[in-house]
Amino acid sequence: MKISLLIFGALIVAVSSLGHTYTGTVTRIKDGDGFLLQTKDKVYDCRIWGIDAPELKQRFGHAAKSMLWSMIKGCQVTVTKVSMSYGRIVVSVKYRDKDIGLEMLKNGLAWYEKKYAPKRKDYETAMKKAQDEKRGLWFDDKPIRPTDFRHHKEQNLAQAK
User: Which pTM was predicted?
Assistant: First the structure.
């Protein structure tokens, strides 16, 4: 019973902080859509909302990480918490009035995730334009969505057991 109350309390705190804005310094870029944010109080493990960048073991994975690094590493950014996922906060990110998720899409280094950000027509338009112009991962004839890549990786691991 005590554990259930603790979990319930933690869920209430997590949900009540949605929409909260944090300002801090990006101390580490993990991949093309993940980073660590140091505020004055703590370090947050962040994932960029509305996009999915290639995994590091995928083609263009390191290019996506490098692009994110060049845009925000060491920079003071503002993030707005949208949700939680696997212990990370999912955030929209602003740096110098630029939407970093949108910039990743414009550069062709991420997929727009309509499922999670259905009203972001600007995200959809940016991805379509990058596709049409064969920018970034769209240069590849058959780019593999990160979700498909992760799914195949999980299947291969299961078969190996």
Answer: 0.84
Contact 27, 97 (CB under 8 A): no
pLDDT, position 155: 57
Rounded CA-CA distance 29/50 in Å is 18
CA neighbor of 136 nearest in space, from 47, 60, 50, 51: 60
Percent of the chain with pLDDT strictly greater than 90: 80
**What type of residue is 104?**
M
Separation of CA 102 from chain center: 11
Q: How far is the CA of 130 from the CAs of 39, 127, 133, 147, in angstroms?
A: 33, 5, 5, 20
Q: CB within 8 A of 129, min separation 6: which ones?
A: 106
